[in-house]
Amino acid sequence: MKSKISRAIGPAAMVIAVSIALLLLERELKSYHYRDLMRQVWTLPHSHLALALLLTAVAYAVLPGYDAIALSYVDHPLPVRRIAFGSFIAYALSHSLGFPLLSGGPVRYRFWSVWGLSTSEIAQAISFAGATFIIGMIAVAGFVFLLEPTSTIELLRLPLNSLKPLGALCLVLVAAYLVLSATRYKTFRFFEWEFPVPSTRLALAQLGVAVVDWTAAGAVLYVLLPPGYHLSFLPVLGVFLLAQFAGILSHVPGGLGVFEAIVVILLRPYVPAASIVGSLLAYRAIYYLMPLVIALTFLIAFELQRQGGRVAEYASLAGGIVGRWMPALLPQILSVTTFVAGVILIVSGATPPVRSRFSALDAVLPLGVMELSHFAASLAGAALVILAWAIKRRLDAAYTLTIATLGIGIVASLLKGLDWEEAFALSLVLVALIPSRRAFYRKAAITSEPFPNGWIGAVVVVGVVTTWLAFFSYRNVDFTSSVWWEFSGRGDAPRSLRAMIGVLGALMLFALTRKLRHAEAEPELPSLRQLDLAARIAAGSPDTIANLALLGDKSLLFSDTGRSMIMYGIAGRSWIALGDPLGPESEQGELAWRFRESADQHGGWPVFYEVSARHLPIYIDLGLTLFKLGEEAIIKLPDFCLDGGGRKALRRTRKDALKAGATFEMIPPEETHIFLPGLKQISDEWLASKRTKEKGFSLGRFDERYIKSFPVALIRVGDAVVAFANVWLGADKTEISVDLMRYTSVAPPGVMEFLLIELMLWGKENGYQRFNLGMAPLSGIENRSLAPMWNRIGALLFSRGEPFYNFQGLRLYKEKFDPIWEPRYLASPGGLVLPRILTNVASLISGGLVGVVAK
Predict the structure, then answer these.
(1) How far apart are CA 95 and CA 259, in angstroms?
(2) Most buried of 107, 243, 301, 573 (most Cβ within 10 A)?
């Protein structure tokens, strides 16, 4: 309950912030009408609009500089065309969603990862770009406060006599940063965080790019303000900075409403409120919507090229990134544009039509058609803001429904008032969506999808804003009960209010449908029937790790076909899947999505533990962050032999064991039960000698039902069994591995190495392709100066952690078999929750927190 409340705080605060902003706007605009605002938009001088377009082009031309500097910071520069391409797509989307340096992160990850950047480099680069953004804001604020303090105080209504000290402080902070970059210090520590210090050249570039960006963005608003009021640029820039900062803090998408309220309140003593709002509407259209339309147009061009089979030349414009990664980005781009299309329809339904167009249409169409079209367009808008999330989740049903809804919206927009601009905008989204069929492959019900609180908050904000807009547009109408049932060509207010009731009703009906849907069952340990199904999947899997499902200590999530599964455990808020999804490749992606959704619905964090590199696109698609855990040792059995100088130690071990009377024997599963009492004694003695207890989750344990499911390798000395290992065999003789390996005190020295050698020779003789020696934790992790904290800790433990765990010794031991090392990763939410997730993983394996610190 507490976690649900904490997750709802952010969206609730967002809705409250918008509501307060609208109340403030209502107070400032009480003397104006909707027509007054639109008149201000249409009377803006064309020269000012042209200058605003030019300044917007300058601002967007500067934005790639953030990424270029960040990539230089991590010592991974890229060609300009690649940086410019990725930056434009990222910023066009993220400016519509909120704080651009954060919300554009997933898009950058897509691009930069395929261009060769590691996860750690991407995280460092995104953080550095965010720092550049903040440095620019501080620097510009310092200049504003220092150069024109008096008029700025008046405009910002600050209770201060002078802003010069504050401006000086801002510039001193920036200067201190530049001085730090010129010193010999390589890192800067802030509490427990440590940051590499950039060079002076990079620091100056940060300052230059960010100052130009903030100044150009503020200048767009300045030139759109009505002429004749003699406002200086610097004070207006100060207002712009404050409004942007408030919008960022509110977490409202794009600062919608909050940004406008701050600007109107601060500028109203000098400029009429209606004129300010008209300028803000033009600002939103030019600086936010226009780049989004351009990005969507580019997407349409790409899809048409791809469908025509001419993508190669087109993709070369971005260094090959378009053809490889644009399909993966399609759902994100189309999700944003679908949401915007829905908002356009809802807002249009809440506001008066263009009277000349409506009258022309009223002369040729029955009133009933126009009334129905108005209502249908608004309902289509409500459907689109809901479907936008399902589009992002790649749902097959969402693709079909969104196409149909866009079609309805286009026709209804034309029939309700000849709103060709809306129809054109929706047509762009439709044309981009139609050829993107392959991106929507998930067979899941839309009502079963978990809607995050942030998305719900955004939908609520749309409802609140458009409801306010409807009542503002018709503030002079006397809303008696009879008005709601008035149908006439002049009945704009009843028409809009009926549309808003329809929108709010549709959203509430959808929320109620989700609330009343069948609740997902709580995770529980598998039944015998489920274990039998898991055994069949494990028997058909080439990955031997699948056999850990038979322990019965993990919950199992099966695909609808019953051919695939994910085994997982829960510790704290972490839902930890062991390994990759198991089963046919065609089902793995959908199953991973279902696992994430189950975790989301229960307020958990989806975590995939010890996953392979070949499935990384799945986890990137899920929005997870990757952390390297170590490397797994794989021996190619067809090439394995004991000949040559490099195998001298292995030959010696085998010779000594044979000389001591040791023999190797494989017992099939159907005969394992005969040996269970003796094996149990060996296991108990081994546990006592090691002063440890049985583990679990990713490690097997001695359980009679579990052990007798597998063949067992025995080492005898005479007639006595002195060591054993249960053996995992992969399907189609792909892989062989061992789970438990235990021995008695009377076993000859090197008995475990002897057992492994004999198993490898047995596997080679029986046609198996590879032997999995398991993972060497924390090995192969880079410890460069720009590596993130996890890499540094991992590398430190690997090199200095021998008193706690023999990390290097384990790696060296496995090296004697000359393996191929394959990386293994943890895929999980990143950020500050990572330490808790790692603690949960350790707790799950060790059987509790006590087991983490005890043997």
Answers:
(1) 13
(2) 243
The C-alpha atoms of residue 217 and residue 291 are separated, in whole angstroms, by: 13
In a domain, 648, yes or no: yes
**In the structure encoding, which two tokens stand for residue 364, read together?**
């040729």
Helices (H), 148-199: 149-156, 164-182
Six-digit token pair at 547? 């056999």
What does the alpha-carbon distance between residue 844 and residue 852 come to, in Å, rounded to a whole number?
A: 9
Q: What HEC string does 680-703 produce? A: HHHHHHHHHHHCCCCCCCCCCCCC
Q: Give the helix/strand (H/E) hosting 559.
A: none
d(CA 632, CA 698) in angstroms, rounded, equals 14
Cα distance between residue 135 and residue 845, in whole Å: 44
Cβ-contact 275, 40 below 8 angstroms: yes
Question: Tokens at residue 731, please?
Answer: 């399907």
Q: Would you mind telling me the total number of residues written for the chain in this entry?
A: 855
Take residue 288 and report the two structure tokens written for it: 């936010």
What are the CA-CA distances from residue 175 to residues 143, 293, 334, 615, 845 (Å)? 13, 39, 43, 46, 50
In this structure, which long-range contacts are made by residues 844-848, counting pairs with CB atoms below 8 Å and at least 24 apart in sequence? 844/569, 844/570, 844/571, 844/574, 844/576, 844/696, 844/697, 845/695, 845/696, 845/697, 845/698, 845/699, 846/695, 847/693, 847/694, 847/695, 847/696
Amino acid at 593: W
Residue 467 CB coordination number (10 Å): 18
Mean pLDDT by 10 residues, the chain (855 residues): 57 74 74 74 86 92 87 81 76 62 59 68 79 88 76 59 76 87 69 69 90 92 84 86 82 76 84 85 86 73 54 42 54 84 88 81 83 89 89 83 92 88 88 81 67 74 82 70 62 78 82 61 79 92 91 90 92 88 89 86 84 85 80 91 86 92 93 92 91 82 90 93 94 92 92 93 94 73 42 38 48 84 85 75 64 42
Phi/psi for 712 (5° steps) reads -125, 130
The rounded distance, in Å, linking the Cα atoms of 359 and 352 is 13
Backbone angles phi, psi at 845, to 5 degrees: -70, -40
d(C-alpha 724, C-alpha 712), whole Å? 7
Cα 236 from chain centre: 36
Find the domain containing 771 and state its range: 633-828
Beta-bridge partner residues of 663: 716
Q: Which amino acid belongs to residue 713?
A: A
Number of compact structural domains in the chain: 1
CA 599 to CA 149: how far, in whole Å? 52
CB–CB of 89/60 below 8 Å? no
Residue 824, domain CATH: 3.40.630.30
Residue type, 722: V
Residue 769 lies in a domain: yes
Long-range CB contact pairs, 807-813, < 8 A, 24+? 807/776, 807/777, 807/778, 807/779, 810/776, 810/777, 811/776, 811/779
Sign (positive/negative) of CA torsion 263, 265, 266, 269? positive
Q: Would you state the structure tokens that stand for residue 216, as one six-digit string?
A: 């150009």
CA angle 607, 4, 15 (to 5 degrees): 115
Overall pTM > 0.70: no
* Spatial distance between the Cα atoms of 450 and 51, rounded to a whole number of angstroms: 44
Domain annotation covers residue 352: no
- Bridge partners of residue 481, in order along the sequence: none
Q: Which two tokens stand for residue 92?
A: 């066009």
- Sheet harboring 605-612: ordered strands across? 555-558, 565-571, 574-578, 605-612, 820-828, 625-636, 770-777, 735-743, 720-729, 712-717, 662-667
Residue 303 in contact with residue 337, Cβ under 8 Å? no
Q: Which helix (H) or strand (E) element contains residue 628?
A: strand 625-636
Please, are residues 341 and 425 in contact by the beta-carbon 8 Å criterion? Answer: yes
Give the amino acid at 639. D
Alpha helices for 183-310 (secondary structure H) = 200-224, 233-250, 258-267, 273-283, 290-307
